[in-house]
Design brief:
The chain is of the alpha/beta class. The protein has a single domain, classed as 3-Layer(aba) Sandwich (Rossmann fold). It is built from 6 helices and 10 strands. The longest helix is centred in the middle third of the chain and has 15 residues, at 103-117. It starts with 9 loop residues before the first strand and ends with a helix. Bound molecules: S-adenosylmethionine. Residues 30-33, 35, 50-53, 65-67, 85, 87-88, 194-196 line the site of S-adenosylmethionine.
Length: 209
């Protein structure tokens, strides 16, 4: 079965197998990098990324709107787990000085987050920086840092969890340079800053896979 049948866009790459075989069916929503998808695939899961952008690395990828994937979800073939990385542009408190000029964008972004959190999927993790999701929807279940997962830098990342245990740090390392200072300005800056770190991706796959 192709995801085109759900009106979601184009399903690219991979074998496209729909067989379960004991493995979980995992949807990585809002991921162009393929980093979390590949961490789950390496553990034998049927993992798919979904983004409006093409995948940076070959693999199972749904090119299109993740809400259409969720709306078109057939009852007999539900996802077991979704990890979602919705855009934080209008939500992150680091951009608070512009909040008054983007009320409508914020409402739209919050609605997107709510729809992801309310998806009919048993296990869900939604990830975002410190943001107004905490005050407008609910507080996160956990806040993690890259230095807890082998990357010597800081970037507070909130996790909203449904039927998942908190992530246990896998490798606490030295280094507390703010990640925000590591990227120089340029067209790819947002991408470089938003890619999920491999240490975090592996921890998710090892502990939730
Ligand atoms: C903050 S980035 C997350 C990047 C991710 N951590 C990664 O490693 O690829 C947010 C992503 O959400 C995607 N996005 C926004 N709206 C979407 C939608 N309706 N459906 C699917 N992806 C969407 C954007 O294209 C962007 O790549």
């Amino acid at each position: 079965m192709s995801y085109d049948q759900f009106g979601a866009g184009e399903a690219l790459g991979g074998e496209g197998t729909r067989e379960r075989g004991g493995a979980m069916k995992v949807l990585i929503a809002c991921e162009f990098s393929g980093i979390v998808r590949d961490a789950f695939a390496a553990k034998g899961h049927d993992a798919w990324s979904c983004d409006l952008l093409p995948t940076e690395k070959p693999g199972n990828h749904i090119l299109g709107d993740v809400l259409k994937v969720l709306m078109g979800m057939p009852k007999e073939e539900p996802w077991d787990l979704m990890i979602a990385h919705p855009p934080c542009t209008h939500l992150a408190v680091s951009g608070a000085r512009w909040f008054k000029d983007k009320i409508q964008e914020q409402e739209t972004a919050l609605l997107f987050v709510k729809r992801l959190l309310n998806a009919r999927i048993k296990k869900i993790c939604l990830e975002n920086p410190i943001s107004i999701i905490s005050s407008r929807i609910r507080k996160p279940d956990q806040i993690i840092q890259p230095w807890q997962f082998g990357h010597g830098e800081t970037k507070a990342t909130c996790l909203w969890l449904k039927n998942l245990p908190k992530l246990i740090p896998t490798s606490i390392v030295d280094g507390r340079l703010a990640r925000v200072h590591k990227e120089s300005p340029g067209p790819d800056r947002w991408k470089n800053r938003s890619r999920t770190l491999i240490g975090v991706a592996r921890a998710m796959a090892e502990q939730w896979g």
